Amino acid sequence: MPNSRSATKRMRQNQARRVRNRMVKSTMRTQIKKVLEAVAQSDLARAEAELRVAAKKLDQAASKHIVHRNVAARVKSRLSHRVNRLKGAGAAASA
Asked: Within a 10 A sphere around the Cβ of 32, how many other Cβ atoms?
């Protein structure tokens, strides 16, 4: 337990931030899973829609320094690559 008043306040602040950060990370991960599920089901329209939301969630987490901006960029790149591969497969199948 903290010994000073400032340490007690710091502990309260850290707990509140931890809860908030976990919530943001959780919603971010859930959105990434939604994109991956849509890609797995070959649902291009849903995958593109979920990708837009996932990119927004990743950018928000990066701007709040919950994840590093390079991590957000890397995940967005990998997700968009999968969606674009799905787009290419759909175009090749229809041609």
From this structure: 19
The backbone torsions φ and ψ at residue 73, rounded to the nearest 5 degrees and listed phi first, read: -65, -40
pLDDT at 94: 65
Looking at the domain that runs over 5-94, which CATH code has it been given? 1.20.58.110
Domain ranges of the chain: 5-94
Can you read off the two tokens belonging to residue 92? 């090749």
How many separate helices (H) and strands (E) can be counted in the chain? Answer: 3, 0
- How would residue 91 be classed by pLDDT, with cut points 50, 70 and 90? confident
Q: Are 35 and 54 in contact (CB under 8 A)?
A: yes
Residue 95 — very low, low, confident or very high, per pLDDT cuts 50/70/90? low
How far apart CA 73 and CA 46 sit, in angstroms, is: 21
Please check whether residue 89 is in contact with residue 39, taking contact to mean a CB–CB distance below 8 angstroms. Answer: no
